[in-house]
Amino acid sequence: MGRHDSDMTLSIVEKSPLFDLRGKISVNAVPDEVYAVVSDLTRSAEWSPECRGGEWISGAPATVGAIFRGENLRSEDVVGWAPLVRGVWYTEARITAAEPGRTFRWAMLTHARENQQSVWGFDLEPAAQGCLLTHHFRMDQPTEGIYKIVADLDEDERDRFIREWSEKLEQDIAHTLERIKVVIEAGK
């Protein structure tokens, strides 16, 4: 089998990046003010569709290397046909970038507390009316969780899952940005 032939047999979950999504919104606040809010992951319940907040369990909060344990909640109807974790579950993430007023990122951890190629973050840049806030998510390789979800799915179901999960993530990013804007601008 030639190289080209073998590439065609790759499962969709083996393609990289698996997810690479971003959204942007203007916020009427300076980048440092926005950063102070988005880097406080304990407040996530105020804007996230799934994360209900959590606690810092290692390191100084919101600094590179710190670990955050998030509490999450997913309803039954979210990509309802797929074998997803439902109800409450917990994740851990390590801060990988923390530059006040500029960028804040975290990598999801394995059960062994190793960084996965699943990184969420916020980037901020000054704008005429405050700042432009970008929320992004990139997963280069499947996480432990993705492998569990797709383990018993055939390739058509895997393709459907990746499509529908991408749509869900795009909606979540847009919702998160809209809520952060409201939280910050209402607090001024």
Describe the model.
The chain is an alpha+beta fold and 188 residues long. The protein has a single domain, classed as START domain (Alpha-D-Glucose-1,6-Bisphosphate, Chain A, domain 4, 2-Layer Sandwich). Helix content is 28%, strand content 36%. The protein has helices spanning 3-8, 31-38, 144-150, 155-186; strands at residues 19-27, 51-58, 67-74, 87-99, 103-109, 115-127, 130-139. The protein has a seven-stranded antiparallel beta sheet, covered by helices on one side.
What is the N-to-C order of secondary-structure elements (H for helix, E for strand)? HEHEEEEEEHH
With strands numbered from the N-terminus, the spatial order across the biggest sheet is 1-7-6-5-4-3-2
Class from helix and strand fractions: alpha+beta
Largest sheet: 7 strands, antiparallel
Measured by DSSP, the beta-strand proportion falls in 35-45%
